[in-house]
Amino acid sequence: MIEPVTSKRLRLAGFTAVLLAFVVSTANAEPPTAALAYYAIDNIVLLLCAVFVFLMQPGFALLEAGLNPSKNTVHVLFKNTIDLSFGVLLYFIVGYSLMYGADASGGLGLFGWNGFGITAEMNPADIGPGILNPQVDWLFQVAFVAAAATIVGGAVSGRMTLQAYLIYTITITAIVYPISGFWKWGGGWLDQLGFHDFAGSIVVHSVGGFAARAGVSVLGPRIGRFNQDGSANRIPAHSMVLSALGVFLLWIGWYGFNPGSQLAFSGAANTNATMLIAANTTLAAAAGSATALVVGWLVGGRPQLLTTLNGILAGLVGITASCDSVTNLEAIIIGVAAAVLVMLGAHLLEKLQIDDVVGAWPVHGLCGIWGGIAAGIFGGHPLGVQILGSIVIPAWAFLTMFGLFYAMKAAGILRVSHGEELVGLDLAEHGEVEGAIAFSWREEFNLYVPSMDKQHKNLVAVAQDIIEAMRSGLGKGAIEEAFQGLLKYTTDHFKSEELFIAKHEFPGTDEHKAIHKQLTQRVLEYSKELFSKETLDAADFQRFLTDWLVNHILEIDRQYAVFVNELPKKQ
Predict the structure, then answer these.
(1) pLDDT-derived band of residue 112, with 50, 70 and 90 as boundaries?
(2) d(CA 281, CA 278)
(3) Global confidence as pTM
(4) CATH topology (fold) of 33-410
Protein backbone atom coordinates (compact mmCIF):
# COMPACT_ATOMS: atom_id res chain seq x y z
CA MET A 1 0.00 0.00 0.00
CA ILE A 2 1.29 3.46 -0.90
CA GLU A 3 1.81 5.66 2.15
CA PRO A 4 0.13 9.09 2.19
CA VAL A 5 2.43 11.94 1.14
CA THR A 6 1.94 13.62 4.52
CA SER A 7 3.19 10.55 6.36
CA LYS A 8 6.27 10.39 4.18
CA ARG A 9 7.01 14.06 4.78
CA LEU A 10 6.67 13.68 8.53
CA ARG A 11 8.98 10.69 8.57
CA LEU A 12 11.50 12.56 6.41
CA ALA A 13 11.36 15.58 8.70
CA GLY A 14 11.82 13.38 11.74
CA PHE A 15 14.77 11.59 10.17
CA THR A 16 16.35 14.93 9.22
CA ALA A 17 15.95 16.26 12.75
CA VAL A 18 17.50 13.17 14.30
CA LEU A 19 20.38 13.22 11.80
CA LEU A 20 21.01 16.91 12.47
CA ALA A 21 20.96 16.32 16.21
CA PHE A 22 23.35 13.43 15.82
CA VAL A 23 25.81 15.51 13.79
CA VAL A 24 25.68 18.40 16.24
CA SER A 25 25.95 16.16 19.28
CA THR A 26 28.83 14.16 17.82
CA ALA A 27 30.81 17.34 17.20
CA ASN A 28 30.29 18.35 20.83
CA ALA A 29 30.39 14.88 22.42
CA GLU A 30 26.75 15.23 23.50
CA PRO A 31 24.17 12.47 23.31
CA PRO A 32 21.53 13.18 20.63
CA THR A 33 18.23 14.35 22.10
CA ALA A 34 15.00 15.80 20.76
CA ALA A 35 15.72 19.06 22.63
CA LEU A 36 19.09 19.36 20.94
CA ALA A 37 17.53 18.66 17.53
CA TYR A 38 14.88 21.33 18.04
CA TYR A 39 17.52 23.82 19.20
CA ALA A 40 19.69 23.12 16.17
CA ILE A 41 16.77 23.43 13.73
CA ASP A 42 15.50 26.69 15.19
CA ASN A 43 18.91 28.37 15.22
CA ILE A 44 20.16 27.15 11.86
CA VAL A 45 16.90 28.05 10.11
CA LEU A 46 17.02 31.52 11.68
CA LEU A 47 20.58 31.90 10.43
CA LEU A 48 19.41 31.08 6.91
CA CYS A 49 16.54 33.57 7.27
CA ALA A 50 19.05 36.24 8.32
CA VAL A 51 21.00 35.55 5.13
CA PHE A 52 17.79 35.98 3.13
CA VAL A 53 17.13 39.33 4.81
CA PHE A 54 20.69 40.41 4.00
CA LEU A 55 19.83 39.64 0.36
CA MET A 56 17.49 42.62 0.55
CA GLN A 57 20.55 44.89 0.59
CA PRO A 58 21.57 44.05 -3.00
CA GLY A 59 17.86 44.26 -3.82
CA PHE A 60 17.64 47.82 -2.56
CA ALA A 61 20.95 48.66 -4.25
CA LEU A 62 19.79 47.45 -7.67
CA LEU A 63 16.37 49.07 -7.34
CA GLU A 64 17.79 52.45 -6.37
CA ALA A 65 20.68 52.40 -8.84
CA GLY A 66 18.34 51.54 -11.70
CA LEU A 67 15.88 54.33 -10.91
CA ASN A 68 18.62 56.97 -10.78
CA PRO A 69 20.52 58.57 -13.66
CA SER A 70 23.75 56.67 -14.31
CA LYS A 71 25.82 59.63 -13.06
CA ASN A 72 24.78 58.70 -9.49
CA THR A 73 25.25 54.93 -9.61
CA VAL A 74 28.46 54.78 -7.57
CA HIS A 75 27.00 57.16 -4.99
CA VAL A 76 23.86 55.02 -4.58
CA LEU A 77 25.89 51.83 -4.17
CA PHE A 78 28.22 53.56 -1.74
CA LYS A 79 25.30 54.60 0.47
CA ASN A 80 23.97 51.04 0.52
CA THR A 81 27.41 49.85 1.55
CA ILE A 82 27.75 52.25 4.49
CA ASP A 83 24.17 51.49 5.61
CA LEU A 84 25.16 47.87 6.04
CA SER A 85 28.68 48.25 7.39
CA PHE A 86 28.02 51.12 9.80
CA GLY A 87 24.62 49.69 10.72
CA VAL A 88 26.13 46.35 11.72
CA LEU A 89 28.79 47.95 13.92
CA LEU A 90 26.56 50.54 15.57
CA TYR A 91 23.74 48.10 16.21
CA PHE A 92 26.27 45.76 17.81
CA ILE A 93 27.76 48.49 20.01
CA VAL A 94 24.58 50.23 21.24
CA GLY A 95 21.50 49.53 19.12
CA TYR A 96 20.85 45.93 20.12
CA SER A 97 21.06 46.76 23.81
CA LEU A 98 18.77 49.78 23.44
CA MET A 99 16.21 47.63 21.63
CA TYR A 100 16.34 44.35 23.53
CA GLY A 101 17.92 45.19 26.87
CA ALA A 102 16.10 45.37 30.18
CA ASP A 103 13.86 48.40 30.61
CA ALA A 104 16.13 51.28 31.58
CA SER A 105 13.45 53.99 31.66
CA GLY A 106 12.13 53.38 35.16
CA GLY A 107 9.35 51.06 34.07
CA LEU A 108 8.00 53.40 31.39
CA GLY A 109 8.89 51.01 28.57
CA LEU A 110 10.75 53.65 26.55
CA PHE A 111 14.16 52.05 25.94
CA GLY A 112 16.31 49.23 27.18
CA TRP A 113 19.94 48.75 28.13
CA ASN A 114 22.10 45.75 28.95
CA GLY A 115 25.52 47.23 28.26
CA PHE A 116 27.59 47.48 25.10
CA GLY A 117 27.64 44.66 22.58
CA ILE A 118 25.97 41.24 22.90
CA THR A 119 25.96 40.69 26.65
CA ALA A 120 23.75 37.61 26.89
CA GLU A 121 25.43 34.22 27.08
CA MET A 122 24.09 30.81 26.12
CA ASN A 123 23.40 28.51 29.06
CA PRO A 124 23.74 24.87 27.94
CA ALA A 125 21.04 23.90 30.41
CA ASP A 126 18.53 26.05 28.50
CA ILE A 127 19.01 24.32 25.15
CA GLY A 128 15.67 23.28 23.72
CA PRO A 129 12.89 24.22 21.31
CA GLY A 130 12.44 27.96 20.78
CA ILE A 131 15.70 28.87 22.52
CA LEU A 132 17.89 31.11 20.39
CA ASN A 133 21.61 31.58 20.64
CA PRO A 134 22.15 35.33 21.36
CA GLN A 135 24.60 35.55 18.47
CA VAL A 136 22.13 34.41 15.81
CA ASP A 137 19.37 36.48 17.40
CA TRP A 138 21.54 39.60 17.02
CA LEU A 139 22.45 38.61 13.46
CA PHE A 140 18.81 38.31 12.44
CA GLN A 141 17.88 41.61 14.06
CA VAL A 142 20.80 43.56 12.56
CA ALA A 143 19.65 42.55 9.08
CA PHE A 144 16.38 44.39 9.85
CA VAL A 145 18.05 47.60 10.97
CA ALA A 146 20.12 47.68 7.78
CA ALA A 147 16.92 47.38 5.73
CA ALA A 148 15.26 50.23 7.62
CA ALA A 149 18.24 52.55 7.10
CA THR A 150 18.58 51.80 3.39
CA ILE A 151 15.01 52.87 2.60
CA VAL A 152 15.99 56.54 2.90
CA GLY A 153 18.96 56.30 0.55
CA GLY A 154 16.84 55.87 -2.57
CA ALA A 155 14.46 58.70 -1.73
CA VAL A 156 17.18 61.36 -1.34
CA SER A 157 19.30 60.20 -4.27
CA GLY A 158 21.19 62.67 -6.42
CA ARG A 159 21.37 65.63 -4.08
CA MET A 160 22.34 64.76 -0.48
CA THR A 161 26.00 64.95 0.50
CA LEU A 162 27.69 61.77 1.60
CA GLN A 163 28.68 63.50 4.83
CA ALA A 164 25.04 64.22 5.66
CA TYR A 165 23.95 60.72 4.72
CA LEU A 166 26.57 59.19 6.98
CA ILE A 167 25.33 61.29 9.91
CA TYR A 168 21.79 60.16 9.13
CA THR A 169 22.61 56.45 8.96
CA ILE A 170 24.56 56.61 12.23
CA THR A 171 21.63 58.29 13.97
CA ILE A 172 18.88 56.01 12.72
CA THR A 173 20.73 52.75 13.29
CA ALA A 174 22.19 53.62 16.69
CA ILE A 175 19.31 55.56 18.25
CA VAL A 176 16.05 56.16 16.38
CA TYR A 177 15.25 52.65 15.13
CA PRO A 178 16.33 50.81 18.32
CA ILE A 179 14.27 53.03 20.63
CA SER A 180 10.99 52.71 18.73
CA GLY A 181 11.81 49.03 18.16
CA PHE A 182 11.96 48.56 21.93
CA TRP A 183 8.45 49.95 22.26
CA LYS A 184 7.13 46.84 20.51
CA TRP A 185 9.70 44.09 20.06
CA GLY A 186 11.69 44.83 23.21
CA GLY A 187 8.62 44.54 25.44
CA GLY A 188 8.11 48.30 25.80
CA TRP A 189 4.96 50.32 26.32
CA LEU A 190 3.28 49.56 23.01
CA ASP A 191 3.84 45.84 23.45
CA GLN A 192 2.31 46.04 26.91
CA LEU A 193 -0.81 47.64 25.39
CA GLY A 194 -1.16 44.69 22.98
CA PHE A 195 0.14 46.31 19.79
CA HIS A 196 0.88 43.73 17.08
CA ASP A 197 3.51 44.08 14.38
CA PHE A 198 4.69 40.60 13.53
CA ALA A 199 7.59 41.35 11.18
CA GLY A 200 7.84 45.13 10.91
CA SER A 201 5.29 46.97 8.75
CA ILE A 202 5.53 49.69 11.39
CA VAL A 203 8.71 48.96 13.34
CA VAL A 204 10.90 48.66 10.23
CA HIS A 205 9.16 49.96 7.11
CA SER A 206 7.23 52.95 8.41
CA VAL A 207 10.32 54.11 10.30
CA GLY A 208 12.36 54.06 7.08
CA GLY A 209 9.49 55.47 5.03
CA PHE A 210 8.82 58.43 7.29
CA ALA A 211 12.51 59.14 7.76
CA ALA A 212 12.61 59.33 3.97
CA ARG A 213 9.60 61.66 3.97
CA ALA A 214 11.43 63.97 6.38
CA GLY A 215 14.56 63.89 4.26
CA VAL A 216 12.95 64.78 0.95
CA SER A 217 10.85 67.49 2.59
CA VAL A 218 13.87 69.33 3.98
CA LEU A 219 16.14 68.55 1.04
CA GLY A 220 13.86 69.78 -1.76
CA PRO A 221 13.45 68.31 -5.27
CA ARG A 222 16.14 67.56 -7.80
CA ILE A 223 16.98 70.24 -10.36
CA GLY A 224 14.44 70.16 -13.17
CA ARG A 225 11.99 67.78 -11.42
CA PHE A 226 9.24 70.40 -11.23
CA ASN A 227 8.39 73.49 -13.24
CA GLN A 228 7.35 76.90 -11.95
CA ASP A 229 3.72 76.20 -12.90
CA GLY A 230 3.73 73.13 -10.64
CA SER A 231 3.88 70.56 -13.42
CA ALA A 232 6.31 67.67 -13.08
CA ASN A 233 9.09 66.50 -15.37
CA ARG A 234 10.16 62.90 -15.54
CA ILE A 235 13.87 62.33 -14.93
CA PRO A 236 14.41 59.01 -16.69
CA ALA A 237 15.69 55.95 -14.86
CA HIS A 238 18.86 54.62 -16.45
CA SER A 239 18.10 50.88 -16.11
CA MET A 240 14.73 49.30 -15.45
CA VAL A 241 16.49 45.94 -15.75
CA LEU A 242 18.43 46.69 -12.57
CA SER A 243 15.31 47.97 -10.81
CA ALA A 244 13.21 44.93 -11.74
CA LEU A 245 15.95 42.56 -10.59
CA GLY A 246 16.18 44.54 -7.37
CA VAL A 247 12.48 44.13 -6.66
CA PHE A 248 12.65 40.38 -7.30
CA LEU A 249 15.60 40.11 -4.90
CA LEU A 250 13.60 42.04 -2.30
CA TRP A 251 10.67 39.66 -2.76
CA ILE A 252 12.98 36.69 -2.19
CA GLY A 253 14.49 38.42 0.83
CA TRP A 254 11.04 38.83 2.31
CA TYR A 255 10.92 35.05 2.84
CA GLY A 256 13.58 35.58 5.46
CA PHE A 257 11.92 38.74 6.73
CA ASN A 258 8.42 37.40 7.39
CA PRO A 259 8.73 33.62 7.93
CA GLY A 260 11.97 34.20 9.84
CA SER A 261 10.11 36.38 12.33
CA GLN A 262 8.38 33.25 13.60
CA LEU A 263 11.74 32.74 15.39
CA ALA A 264 10.95 29.08 16.19
CA PHE A 265 10.47 26.47 13.47
CA SER A 266 10.55 23.04 15.02
CA GLY A 267 7.34 21.25 15.90
CA ALA A 268 4.05 21.03 14.04
CA ALA A 269 2.59 24.33 15.31
CA ASN A 270 5.65 26.39 14.35
CA THR A 271 5.95 24.66 11.00
CA ASN A 272 2.30 25.30 10.16
CA ALA A 273 2.58 28.94 11.21
CA THR A 274 5.70 29.45 9.08
CA MET A 275 4.00 27.99 6.01
CA LEU A 276 0.96 30.26 6.47
CA ILE A 277 3.24 33.29 6.80
CA ALA A 278 5.12 32.40 3.62
CA ALA A 279 1.91 31.81 1.65
CA ASN A 280 0.32 35.06 2.85
CA THR A 281 3.49 36.97 1.96
CA THR A 282 3.39 35.58 -1.57
CA LEU A 283 -0.32 36.24 -2.09
CA ALA A 284 -0.14 39.85 -0.88
CA ALA A 285 2.80 40.61 -3.17
CA ALA A 286 1.09 39.06 -6.18
CA ALA A 287 -2.18 40.84 -5.42
CA GLY A 288 -0.37 44.16 -5.08
CA SER A 289 1.42 43.66 -8.38
CA ALA A 290 -1.73 42.65 -10.29
CA THR A 291 -3.74 45.52 -8.84
CA ALA A 292 -1.07 48.11 -9.66
CA LEU A 293 -0.84 46.75 -13.20
CA VAL A 294 -4.58 46.93 -13.83
CA VAL A 295 -5.24 50.27 -12.12
CA GLY A 296 -2.13 51.86 -13.61
CA TRP A 297 -3.15 50.67 -17.07
CA LEU A 298 -6.69 51.98 -16.70
CA VAL A 299 -5.59 55.36 -15.35
CA GLY A 300 -2.48 55.89 -17.47
CA GLY A 301 -3.69 54.26 -20.67
CA ARG A 302 -0.79 51.80 -20.84
CA PRO A 303 0.88 49.20 -18.60
CA GLN A 304 3.63 50.71 -16.45
CA LEU A 305 6.48 48.57 -15.18
CA LEU A 306 7.56 50.80 -12.29
CA THR A 307 3.99 51.06 -11.01
CA THR A 308 3.65 47.28 -11.18
CA LEU A 309 6.94 46.75 -9.35
CA ASN A 310 5.91 49.19 -6.63
CA GLY A 311 2.68 47.20 -6.31
CA ILE A 312 4.76 44.15 -5.38
CA LEU A 313 6.61 46.08 -2.69
CA ALA A 314 3.40 47.66 -1.43
CA GLY A 315 1.79 44.26 -0.95
CA LEU A 316 4.86 42.94 0.84
CA VAL A 317 5.04 45.91 3.22
CA GLY A 318 1.29 45.82 3.86
CA ILE A 319 1.19 42.13 4.84
CA THR A 320 4.28 42.18 7.05
CA ALA A 321 2.50 43.19 10.27
CA SER A 322 -0.24 40.56 10.09
CA CYS A 323 1.11 37.74 7.91
CA ASP A 324 0.85 35.40 10.90
CA SER A 325 -2.74 36.16 11.81
CA VAL A 326 -4.81 36.58 8.63
CA THR A 327 -6.26 34.13 6.12
CA ASN A 328 -5.06 33.75 2.54
CA LEU A 329 -8.04 35.74 1.24
CA GLU A 330 -7.43 38.53 3.74
CA ALA A 331 -3.79 38.65 2.65
CA ILE A 332 -4.94 39.23 -0.93
CA ILE A 333 -7.26 42.03 0.20
CA ILE A 334 -4.43 43.67 2.14
CA GLY A 335 -2.19 43.50 -0.94
CA VAL A 336 -4.88 45.01 -3.18
CA ALA A 337 -5.46 47.93 -0.81
CA ALA A 338 -1.71 48.52 -0.43
CA ALA A 339 -1.29 48.80 -4.21
CA VAL A 340 -4.01 51.43 -4.42
CA LEU A 341 -2.46 53.34 -1.54
CA VAL A 342 1.01 53.37 -3.10
CA MET A 343 -0.34 54.88 -6.31
CA LEU A 344 -2.35 57.50 -4.42
CA GLY A 345 0.70 58.32 -2.31
CA ALA A 346 2.91 58.79 -5.36
CA HIS A 347 0.30 61.08 -6.92
CA LEU A 348 0.06 63.10 -3.70
CA LEU A 349 3.81 63.62 -3.53
CA GLU A 350 3.87 64.87 -7.11
CA LYS A 351 1.05 67.32 -6.43
CA LEU A 352 2.93 68.61 -3.39
CA GLN A 353 6.12 68.88 -5.51
CA ILE A 354 7.98 66.50 -3.20
CA ASP A 355 10.66 64.52 -5.01
CA ASP A 356 10.95 60.97 -3.67
CA VAL A 357 13.10 59.27 -6.31
CA VAL A 358 12.12 55.65 -5.57
CA GLY A 359 8.74 56.16 -3.92
CA ALA A 360 10.05 55.25 -0.46
CA TRP A 361 7.33 57.07 1.46
CA PRO A 362 4.34 55.66 -0.48
CA VAL A 363 5.77 52.11 -0.41
CA HIS A 364 7.25 51.88 3.08
CA GLY A 365 5.65 54.76 4.98
CA LEU A 366 2.07 54.79 3.76
CA CYS A 367 1.77 51.05 3.21
CA GLY A 368 3.55 50.44 6.50
CA ILE A 369 0.80 52.33 8.32
CA TRP A 370 -1.80 50.39 6.35
CA GLY A 371 -0.14 47.15 7.45
CA GLY A 372 -0.36 48.14 11.10
CA ILE A 373 -4.03 49.08 10.85
CA ALA A 374 -4.85 46.02 8.72
CA ALA A 375 -3.60 43.84 11.59
CA GLY A 376 -6.46 45.28 13.63
CA ILE A 377 -9.09 45.07 10.88
CA PHE A 378 -8.30 41.53 9.70
CA GLY A 379 -5.96 40.01 12.28
CA GLY A 380 -8.13 40.27 15.36
CA HIS A 381 -5.82 42.61 17.26
CA PRO A 382 -7.19 45.64 19.18
CA LEU A 383 -7.94 48.19 16.47
CA GLY A 384 -7.50 51.23 18.71
CA VAL A 385 -4.08 50.08 19.86
CA GLN A 386 -3.12 49.26 16.27
CA ILE A 387 -4.05 52.77 15.15
CA LEU A 388 -2.12 54.27 18.06
CA GLY A 389 1.04 52.31 17.30
CA SER A 390 0.69 52.98 13.59
CA ILE A 391 0.75 56.72 14.28
CA VAL A 392 3.23 57.03 17.15
CA ILE A 393 6.17 55.11 15.66
CA PRO A 394 6.07 56.83 12.23
CA ALA A 395 5.67 60.19 13.99
CA TRP A 396 8.74 59.45 16.10
CA ALA A 397 10.79 58.64 13.02
CA PHE A 398 9.55 61.68 11.08
CA LEU A 399 10.07 64.22 13.85
CA THR A 400 13.52 63.04 14.91
CA MET A 401 14.77 62.78 11.34
CA PHE A 402 13.20 66.08 10.30
CA GLY A 403 15.05 67.78 13.15
CA LEU A 404 18.31 66.12 12.14
CA PHE A 405 17.97 66.97 8.44
CA TYR A 406 16.94 70.54 9.23
CA ALA A 407 19.95 71.00 11.52
CA MET A 408 22.27 69.74 8.78
CA LYS A 409 20.62 72.08 6.29
CA ALA A 410 21.15 75.00 8.65
CA ALA A 411 24.80 73.96 8.97
CA GLY A 412 25.15 73.97 5.19
CA ILE A 413 26.14 70.30 4.89
CA LEU A 414 22.90 68.67 3.75
CA ARG A 415 22.74 69.24 0.02
CA VAL A 416 25.37 69.27 -2.71
CA SER A 417 25.70 72.38 -4.85
CA HIS A 418 23.70 72.69 -8.04
CA GLY A 419 26.84 72.26 -10.09
CA GLU A 420 27.72 69.01 -8.31
CA GLU A 421 24.16 67.79 -8.74
CA LEU A 422 24.22 68.52 -12.45
CA VAL A 423 27.50 66.77 -13.09
CA GLY A 424 26.55 63.81 -10.90
CA LEU A 425 27.62 62.63 -7.46
CA ASP A 426 29.77 59.79 -8.79
CA LEU A 427 32.22 62.41 -9.98
CA ALA A 428 31.51 65.24 -7.54
CA GLU A 429 31.58 63.14 -4.36
CA HIS A 430 33.73 60.15 -5.28
CA GLY A 431 35.89 61.24 -8.20
CA GLU A 432 34.70 58.27 -10.22
CA VAL A 433 35.20 58.95 -13.92
CA GLU A 434 34.15 55.75 -15.68
CA GLY A 435 31.64 56.96 -18.26
CA ALA A 436 31.44 60.33 -16.56
CA ILE A 437 32.40 62.29 -19.68
CA ALA A 438 29.19 61.16 -21.37
CA PHE A 439 27.27 63.38 -19.00
CA SER A 440 23.80 62.12 -18.25
CA TRP A 441 22.87 65.52 -16.80
CA ARG A 442 22.00 66.89 -20.25
CA GLU A 443 18.25 66.44 -19.81
CA GLU A 444 18.28 68.09 -16.39
CA PHE A 445 20.58 70.91 -17.51
CA ASN A 446 18.29 71.52 -20.48
CA LEU A 447 15.42 71.99 -18.04
CA TYR A 448 17.50 74.20 -15.75
CA VAL A 449 19.10 76.50 -18.34
CA PRO A 450 17.65 75.66 -21.78
CA SER A 451 19.43 78.46 -23.65
CA MET A 452 22.92 77.21 -22.74
CA ASP A 453 22.50 73.48 -23.22
CA LYS A 454 23.91 73.32 -26.77
CA GLN A 455 27.18 75.00 -25.82
CA HIS A 456 27.83 72.61 -22.99
CA LYS A 457 26.89 69.63 -25.11
CA ASN A 458 29.58 70.75 -27.53
CA LEU A 459 32.10 71.12 -24.71
CA VAL A 460 31.38 67.60 -23.51
CA ALA A 461 31.50 66.24 -27.06
CA VAL A 462 34.94 67.71 -27.71
CA ALA A 463 36.25 66.28 -24.46
CA GLN A 464 34.77 62.88 -25.28
CA ASP A 465 36.46 62.89 -28.68
CA ILE A 466 39.84 63.33 -27.02
CA ILE A 467 39.19 60.47 -24.61
CA GLU A 468 38.21 58.17 -27.47
CA ALA A 469 41.29 59.23 -29.48
CA MET A 470 43.54 58.32 -26.56
CA ARG A 471 41.83 54.97 -26.07
CA SER A 472 42.11 54.10 -29.75
CA GLY A 473 45.88 54.63 -29.69
CA LEU A 474 46.24 57.69 -31.95
CA GLY A 475 49.61 59.37 -32.01
CA LYS A 476 50.57 62.02 -29.50
CA GLY A 477 50.61 64.74 -32.18
CA ALA A 478 47.00 64.09 -33.19
CA ILE A 479 45.86 64.07 -29.58
CA GLU A 480 47.77 67.24 -28.77
CA GLU A 481 46.11 68.94 -31.73
CA ALA A 482 42.68 67.85 -30.48
CA PHE A 483 43.58 69.11 -27.01
CA GLN A 484 44.47 72.52 -28.41
CA GLY A 485 41.09 72.49 -30.13
CA LEU A 486 39.44 71.94 -26.75
CA LEU A 487 41.40 74.79 -25.25
CA LYS A 488 40.39 77.12 -28.10
CA TYR A 489 36.75 76.09 -27.78
CA THR A 490 36.67 76.69 -24.04
CA THR A 491 38.39 80.05 -24.42
CA ASP A 492 35.79 81.14 -27.00
CA HIS A 493 33.08 79.69 -24.81
CA PHE A 494 34.26 81.67 -21.79
CA LYS A 495 34.27 84.86 -23.85
CA SER A 496 30.67 84.27 -24.96
CA GLU A 497 29.61 83.74 -21.33
CA GLU A 498 31.33 86.95 -20.28
CA LEU A 499 29.60 88.87 -23.06
CA PHE A 500 26.30 87.34 -21.99
CA ILE A 501 26.81 88.49 -18.39
CA ALA A 502 27.86 91.97 -19.45
CA LYS A 503 24.91 92.29 -21.83
CA HIS A 504 22.44 91.73 -19.00
CA GLU A 505 24.37 94.04 -16.68
CA PHE A 506 24.97 91.43 -14.01
CA PRO A 507 27.45 92.33 -11.26
CA GLY A 508 30.69 90.39 -11.01
CA THR A 509 31.84 90.42 -14.65
CA ASP A 510 35.47 90.93 -13.62
CA GLU A 511 35.19 88.12 -11.09
CA HIS A 512 33.91 85.72 -13.74
CA LYS A 513 36.78 86.70 -16.03
CA ALA A 514 39.24 85.92 -13.24
CA ILE A 515 37.67 82.51 -12.65
CA HIS A 516 37.76 81.73 -16.36
CA LYS A 517 41.42 82.76 -16.48
CA GLN A 518 42.24 80.41 -13.60
CA LEU A 519 40.44 77.50 -15.25
CA THR A 520 42.22 78.15 -18.55
CA GLN A 521 45.56 78.30 -16.75
CA ARG A 522 44.90 74.93 -15.16
CA VAL A 523 44.41 73.39 -18.60
CA LEU A 524 47.62 74.98 -19.93
CA GLU A 525 49.68 73.76 -16.97
CA TYR A 526 48.27 70.27 -17.21
CA SER A 527 48.85 70.11 -20.97
CA LYS A 528 52.56 70.86 -20.49
CA GLU A 529 52.82 68.06 -17.94
CA LEU A 530 50.75 65.65 -20.03
CA PHE A 531 52.56 66.04 -23.34
CA SER A 532 56.01 66.01 -21.77
CA LYS A 533 55.52 62.32 -20.96
CA GLU A 534 56.63 59.58 -23.31
CA THR A 535 53.26 57.82 -23.12
CA LEU A 536 49.80 59.24 -22.58
CA ASP A 537 47.62 57.84 -19.80
CA ALA A 538 44.00 57.99 -20.95
CA ALA A 539 42.65 57.28 -17.46
CA ASP A 540 44.74 60.03 -15.89
CA PHE A 541 43.71 62.48 -18.60
CA GLN A 542 40.05 61.57 -18.18
CA ARG A 543 40.36 62.09 -14.42
CA PHE A 544 41.82 65.56 -14.90
CA LEU A 545 39.35 66.52 -17.59
CA THR A 546 36.29 65.49 -15.61
CA ASP A 547 37.59 67.29 -12.54
CA TRP A 548 38.13 70.41 -14.63
CA LEU A 549 34.64 70.17 -16.08
CA VAL A 550 33.18 69.83 -12.59
CA ASN A 551 34.88 73.06 -11.57
CA HIS A 552 33.59 74.73 -14.71
CA ILE A 553 30.05 73.54 -14.04
CA LEU A 554 30.29 74.73 -10.43
CA GLU A 555 31.25 78.19 -11.64
CA ILE A 556 28.59 78.50 -14.31
CA ASP A 557 25.99 77.19 -11.87
CA ARG A 558 26.37 80.27 -9.73
CA GLN A 559 26.41 82.39 -12.84
CA TYR A 560 23.18 81.00 -14.23
CA ALA A 561 21.47 80.92 -10.86
CA VAL A 562 21.67 84.68 -11.21
CA PHE A 563 20.35 84.34 -14.76
CA VAL A 564 17.34 82.27 -13.68
CA ASN A 565 16.48 84.50 -10.73
CA GLU A 566 17.18 87.94 -12.17
CA LEU A 567 16.34 87.81 -15.85
CA PRO A 568 12.52 87.73 -15.35
CA LYS A 569 12.82 90.92 -13.28
CA LYS A 570 14.50 92.67 -16.21
CA GLN A 571 11.87 91.67 -18.76
Answers:
(1) very high
(2) 5
(3) 0.79
(4) Ammonium transporter fold (1.10.3430)
